[in-house]
Design a protein that fits this description.
The protein has 319 residues and is of the alpha/beta class. The chain contains twelve helices and 15 strands.
Amino acid sequence: MFPVIRRNLGVLALGATSVLVLAGCDESAASKSTTSSDGKGGDTLVMAAVPAENSTDLKASYASVIKMLEKETGKTITFQKATNYAAVIEGQRSGKIQIAAYGPFSYVQAKSSGVKATPVAAGVENKGDKPGYRSYAIVKTGSSIKDLKGFAGKKVCFVDPNSTSGYLYPRSGLLDAGVDVEKGITPVMAGGHDASVLAVKSGQCEAGFAYDTMVDKQLIEKGQLKQGEITTVWKSGLIPGSPVAISDDLDAELKQKITNAFQTMANADYLKANGYCTGSGKCEVDDAGDWGYATVGDADYDGVRKVCEVTKDKQCVES
């Protein structure tokens, strides 16, 4: 029996009001985004993504996909800046978000805590790839820390208590290495994968965790990290890809249009060919620098549920 995820996300030390707040969400936008009584949906749909980088970049990363979705659905798609992972979960539960880009763990939490949504696609770095990625344990190059055992007694940067590669899988790895996660380290929640890496680079944390692409590619391409400044001392097993989940209470025809759009059109090849990406720069589909999306289903995330069961993290309780 898989554990259910605690609906109360109080570990984030957020009050109920702040958890529900989506930064920049005005009352009119919220009212437009809610589905109508006939289930057809309003004129506006809201899309949100769990934090990964600064909010401006995150919104820009989804711009070409949003343009495509607007044409395919006939709806206005508003990208909503979320304050944290829990805000996306609560936003979709309350009906303020219809399209949510989750991390694997936050998706499992959302489903287990009562969010009625279906995963339809997950990002892939290259065409034909299987959706998935890894968590990296990192240190500043030259550190005396050589493996996870060396994290004991150190100040360690995680991403967020709801992050799969920035918290759940790292916790499992530390436990396997014999490190007391509760008392044997000083944990710091950096708030984003980029922030975790940069905190290790600057020495604010002696070690940390982030997902693979952030370390190997994204920060280097942005000029915020130089090749060789960070050393990876541990890699997790393959984590299922971060899913896009569509609210179940949308009209069936609208859901199918969104599903088809993500599975067949939300990729660099299609977006470039159809004028959604202009200029000579890279055509972005998400914040991870992926080529596009591949089909996923709920069962693909059973591995996350198993890791949750093994770690017995405070976010996970037995049913």
